[in-house]
Design a protein that fits this description.
By secondary structure, the chain is an alpha/beta fold. It has a single domain (3-113, 186-270), classed as 3-Layer(aba) Sandwich (Rossmann fold), CATH 3.40.50. The chain is built from eleven helices and eight strands. It has helices at residues 28-34, 59-72, 86-97, 116-132, 138-150, 155-167, 170-182, 205-216, 234-238, 240-256, 262-265, and strands at residues 3-6, 13-17, 39-43, 78-84, 102-108, 195-201, 222-227, 269-270. It has an eight-stranded mixed sheet, with helices on both faces. The protein is globular and about 55 Å long. The N and C termini lie far apart (36 Å).
């Protein structure tokens, strides 16, 4: 697994994990906003590196490889862990495997699994559309373009994303959805020391509210925010400065009231 690093001169550390079907450059604004104060680490998830032939095998393996990278450099803890979509599930799995790895976690639109029928439909439709949308199928290409447009993805990043998807194997294309649709938290999440901010959209409420309310019973320091009318991935890719602002406000509020849980600092809300 390849890593990109920025702001190496800084003591504070931030780990940013991109979503499925997108490159690490989908986090370029977040990197620019954070690298002045943080040593920023950005892994290229397996199956998402145009320079190798790796395959995405499991969320657990991605998490363990990321943790191994830090352990090899004698880094036991980061200040921030952030992940969106597939990256959100990988972030949560990292915390399951290493309970005290991060001080603050920003988890955006992690799926935490779907029911079997909905998952089967999404896995197979996504595999067909995303794989063929970059390989000459005009109908699939229009659907893919609509998906990228809904996220407000910049044009240059759209071109890079399509280039990545052309390189991506059919196996990884399927596994992105298969893994997030079937991922579930481990019991070890109960032991984390991290202050967690969970963010998803009202358009995702139907399938995200229940698993995150369940997680809330397992994690003491956890705040949930549901934002109105955002598409999946839109906050990370289409409104990255808003995402960073939310992250910074979350950290500031936690530091100002260190003896209170996240839930008592900011109640669950729609913004």
């Amino acid at each position: 697994m390849e890593f990109k690093e920025f702001g190496k001169q800084n003591q504070k550390k931030a780990l940013l994990i991109h979503g499925g079907y997108t490159s690490w450059r989908s986090l370029r604004v977040q990197i620019q906003e954070l690298e002045a104060d943080y040593h920023v680490f950005v892994p290229l998830l397996n199956g998402h590196n145009i320079n190798d032939n790796s395959e995405l095998e499991s969320i657990e393996l991605e998490a363990s490889q990321i943790l191994e990278y830090f352990m090899d450099r004698s880094i036991a803890m980061v200040d921030i862990i952030y992940g969106a979509s597939l990256g959100a599930d990988v972030s949560l799995e990292i915390l399951c495997q290493a309970n005290d790895f991060a001080k603050y976690a920003f988890i955006e639109s992690g799926s935490l699994g779907l029911n079997k029928l909905a998952g089967w439909i999404l896995i197979n439709i996504s595999k067909f559309i995303i794989y063929n949308g970059c390989r000459g199928n005009k109908v699939c290409e229009r659907v893919l373009d609509s998906f990228l447009s809904n996220m407000k993805m910049p044009k240059d990043l759209c071109l890079e994303t399509k280039n990545l998807l052309q390189h991506m194997s059919k196996r990884t294309t399927k596994n992105v959805q298969k893994l997030v649709c079937n991922y579930s938290l481990k019991e070890s999440i109960r032991n984390i020391k991290t202050k967690c901010l969970i963010v998803y959209s009202s358009k995702e409420l139907m399938y995200m509210k229940k698993p995150y309310n369940k997680m809330k019973k397992m994690v003491d320091d956890m705040q949930i925010i549901c934002i109105n009318d955002f598409y999946h991935g839109e906050l990370c890719i289409g409104e990255p400065k808003k995402q960073v602002s939310m992250l910074k406000n979350f950290i500031l509020s936690s530091q100002n009231k260190p003896n209170e849980s996240c839930d008592s600092v900011v109640k669950q809300k729609i913004i």
